[in-house]
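Task card 7
Instruction: Convert sequence to structure tokens.
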Amino acid sequence: MSNQKIEIHPAANIFPMMKEAEYQALKADIAEHGVAEWMTFYEGKLLDGRNRHKACVELGINTRHHAGEVDVDLVPDPVAWVLSLNLHRRHITETQRATIAAKIANLKVGANQHTKEGPQICGPSSTQKAADQLNVKPRSVESAKFAIKAGCNELVESMERDEISPSLAASFAKAVPSKVEQAKILEGGKKAVQQVVKESKNEPEPVPKKKGAVQKPVKLTDNAQEADGVTDAFSKCENRLDTLRRIIATLEPHEAMAAMEWLSDKLELKQ
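Output:
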């Protein structure tokens, strides 16, 4: 286990890295007293000790002397092992627990197998199972799952820091589909997010056209007709997108996620 680039086990990433102040304190302690707790690898992937490994690399300490490989027969379920270890180490808020549960529920099939050929020890957890493991409501986990899938990295990090609740994060991701725009708005903090969500809920419904209303035809030149056709096409597209946004805004997080997955599949089929 040298200081070369290593692969992180998926189960390790269900918990966020330390905040900068905490990390700097850990790094200073390692520099002064050395590595007090070994790093743990699981089939060659780092399962526990990401912050310690990072500090050792920055300090020029060879991690080979401070790391060990866990016996897969003794630890058949790496997710349960990581949970047991970290839930006792850290003070975890309800928002952070819901975010962790969402990450567990989102784990890909095979992420917790101890060999490719071996039996699946712990597949992707259902929302209910993950909620039970972290002692949170399934609805909070669904909201966090949607925010993780539809939100930018900064939004997920805000949940991990307990700055924005899963329900607010999910509503924000629905109101602002663009992850680039999300990141810009998040620079304004929680109040900016709350304002966007509030405005999205207060948007007036478009006035429907009266049935039977006939628009008077206007004679246009060829160029004008072509330009008018392009404008009309864009207008129809924008109207359809507005309708889609309003529909998604009324859905529950798990319903919105299902709708997004359906749309994603449709787009892939057309490509």
